[in-house]
Amino acid sequence: MPPPSEPEAANKAARGGDSDAPRQEIVKAAAELFMDLGYRATSIDAIAERMGSTKGRVYHWYRSKAEIYFDVQRSAMRRLTELVEPIAREGGPPQQRIERMARAHVDCLLHDLPMQKVSVQGLETHVITSDSVRHAKAMREIVGLRDAYEALFCEVIDEGIRAGVFVDLPPRLLSKPFFGALNWVTIWYRPRRLQTEDDLQMLGEMLTEFAVRGILKERN
C-alpha cells in the first residue's frame, strides 16, 4: 500500500474524529526499534512487525520513517515537559525545585527508556542530511521544544544563582553538565529481569543527588 500524499497525511492528523492511540502505538514500537537498531536499520516493515500489524496500517498514519522519528521526539519532550513544568512554575526555594525537577526528569528516563533514549540521542545525522529542506521545519520544532524544556531548568538555576545557592556561572552553561549527569543514564542503563521499583527509586535518588551536587555553590 503506497503512503498517502502529504495533504492526506495532514488531513488525517487534523481530523478530530481520529484517535491518537494508533499513532502512539506506532511511536512506541518505533522507539523500541530505534533504540535497539538505530534509525538507519529500522524500517516501516520492522515497525509493523513489532506491532503485529501490516505496514499499510503504519502508512495510514505516517508517510515516512522520518515522520515517525520526529513524533518520537515530540512525544518524549511532551512527557518530560508535562512532568517538569508544574514543578518549575510553583513557588519555593530553587534548590528544592531543581531537585524535584531533576528527579522527575530521571524517573521519566528510567521508566520510559526507549522513547527518552531516542530523544536524548538527538536528531541523527542521517535524518538531518538526507533531506534537510524537507525536514527543516520539523527539526526547528524539535529544537524549539528542547530549548523551551531546558529553559525551565535554566530559569530555576538562575534564581538559585541570584540567591547564592548555585555556582555563579551562566545558567545555560551550568545546565550542560547538569543534564549530562542525568541523561548519561540512557547510555549505560539497561533494565534487569529481577529489578524492582525500589531499585529504580534508589537509582533515581542517586543520580539526582549527584547532578544537583555538581551545581551547588561551596559553603565556607
UniProtKB/TrEMBL annotation:
Residues 1-22 are annotated as: Disordered. It comes from the Bacteria. This is TetR/AcrR family transcriptional regulator. PROSITE patterns: HTH_TETR_2. Pfam families: TetR_C_24, TetR_N. Gene3D superfamilies: Homeodomain-like (1.10.10.60), Tetracycline Repressor, domain 2 (1.10.357.10). Residues 43-62 bind DNA. Keywords: DNA-binding.
